Structures are given as C-alpha cells and as structure tokens.
Amino acid sequence: MEYILKYTLDSTTLKLEKISDISSTSSILIFRKKFSDVKTLRLFTKSVSKSTFFPVFNIPYDKNKTLHNVLYCEVAVGDSIFVTKEYAKNINPPDHYASFIVNENDDQVKLLHNENIDVSEYSYVIKDQSRILPLYEITFEYDEELEKKAKECFCVKDVKKTSPYHFALQKRLIFVKRVTKRFMLMNFTRDTTDIISIKLGRRDLSMYYPS
Question: Out of the domains of life, which is the source (predicted)?
Fold first, then answer.
C-alpha cells in the first residue's frame, strides 16, 4: 500500500503510518456480485458522503497538515458524464449514467480533445453510497514542502566524475524486453493501447516486439 501511495503522489518521502482493514468477506462478495458487469476502480477519498469525490489519479490531503487519513475503496463508477463541480453536488446522474467526472480546479466545462489534461485535477463523483465499498482506512505522513525540498536535492552531483557504464547490446535487449513485459503486466498499464517504439543506438528493435 505504501508503494501505491508513493506512486500516486509521485513521492519519495511519504510514510505509511497505519492501515486498517474495514471490509469483510461477505461485504466484498455481495458488492462484487451486485456490480459484476459494471466498471469498478480502486480509489481514494477522505470520507463517504451523499456526494463522494474520488480523485481519478490522486490522493486527497490537507496541504496544511503532515498526517493524513483517507479511505481506499472499491468503486462501481460505471458510465460517467463530465459536468461542473456545482452541478455534480446538486443533481443526480441522468439515466444510463452512474457517476460524474468533474475538474476540481476549474468549474467550467470545456472541450478536452485539444487540451493538455492533468488527470490529477479530475475526480469521480458518486451519489449512490451502495456503489462504494470501503476496503482500508489509511493514515500516512506526507509533507508537501518536505517533498519539494527532497526533489530539489535529489540530483547526481558526481555524474561527471565517473565514466558511464554500458551494457553489451545483447544484455540491453534482454533488459528492455524484461522491463517492457513487466510494465505491460502492471494493473495500471495493462490496458494501454499505446505502441512504444524503442531504439538502441541505430538499431531498430521493432523486430523484437512484433505487433
């Protein structure tokens, strides 16, 4: 869980302080049976309410504190519709939709196809609490200012003092293949449809990765 927290916040200083399992085998079975054919995600929120906000790819925390409490939940988001934050707070999703998606920092609906989208700014809004299954209650330590300082200091000062180490081409090919395979098997990347073109030196590796 600490790895998930660090990865989501892109942090090197975050520390997991406490994690409590608040689910039960029966509640998990009932939830998954009810929403077996619905899109479900595991997301973080501060608390469950009439309008529960789940960041798409972020963790809610108070910037003025260093100790934070969140819930890690399984959420049946289903089909979502993009609306303003104010609309999502006051209106239920229309027919054929189960949830909203809102921009936390901008309450204006804009065309998205030509914009550089920061996914961390967006949240799902769930109005039906039966679609939320709390799994873990988590306490973690995270100081935004400390993180910034750590990243500013995280640099290779002696890089010019040593000669670079080079793998032989054959070893590099094996390394790239293993990393690529592991990357594609990870939960958050296995659904990707992007095609990654890799070249080492002047040799095209497309022959090693047939589509």
Answer: Eukaryota
- pTM recorded for the entire structure: 0.69
What are the beta bridge partners of residue 36?
none
Give the Cα separation of 194 and 204 in Å (integer). 18
From 121, 135, 127, 107, select the one nearest 43 (Cα to Cα).
Answer: 135
| Residue pLDDT, tens place only, 193-208 | 443 444 444 444 444 4
| pLDDT band for position 106 (cuts 50, 70, 90) | confident
